[in-house]
Amino acid sequence: MILASHIIVSGLLGATTQNYFLAAAIGLVSHYILDAIPHWDFYLSPEFNVKVETEDGSFIKEKLFWKEVGKIAIDILIGLGLLFVFLKTSSYINITAVFISVFFGVLPDPLQLLYLMTKWRFIKWNFDFQEFVHHS
Questions:
Q1: Rounded to an integer, what distance in angstroms lies between the CA atom of residue 15 and that of residue 122?
Q2: Phi, psi values for residue 104, rounded to 5°
Q3: What is the pLDDT of residue 63?
């Protein structure tokens, strides 16, 4: 699912609470619930994870990497823009709770990408759970 939908749903749900811990839980749970619904994803190019070694031994990302980062940034900006359009009609919202909920509402996707890039075992649970939710 594109990040914009996770941002909008988790932000709107997070706006209903003043409790920051509840906002975090709402955001996180909403992510997995949304991912359980059959949906379209835009996929990052397979070359997204490619690193090129420079002459001095350091690594740089391919040009394609920055193109993919740009797509993600546009997705996030659209989600935040639409969220604030929807929230504008509210008389009072706790913006901190909204941002906490949004943060936790999108967190599983960057964790999944981080796992794919690093294979860190301590975040493998998220990768496995995301795969289970997407394919069940």
A1: 31
A2: -75, -25
A3: 66
pLDDT at 90: 77
* pTM attached to this predicted model: 0.83
Rounded CA gap, 15 and 93, in Å? 6
* CA 16/CA 5 separation, integer angstroms: 17
| Domain locations in the chain as residue ranges | 3-134
The DSSP secondary-structure symbol of 107 reads T
Q: Are 25 and 99 in contact (CB under 8 A)?
A: no
Identify any residues that bridge with 61 across adjacent strands, giving them in sequence order. 51
Q: Helix, strand, coil % (nearest 5) of the chain?
A: 70, 5, 25
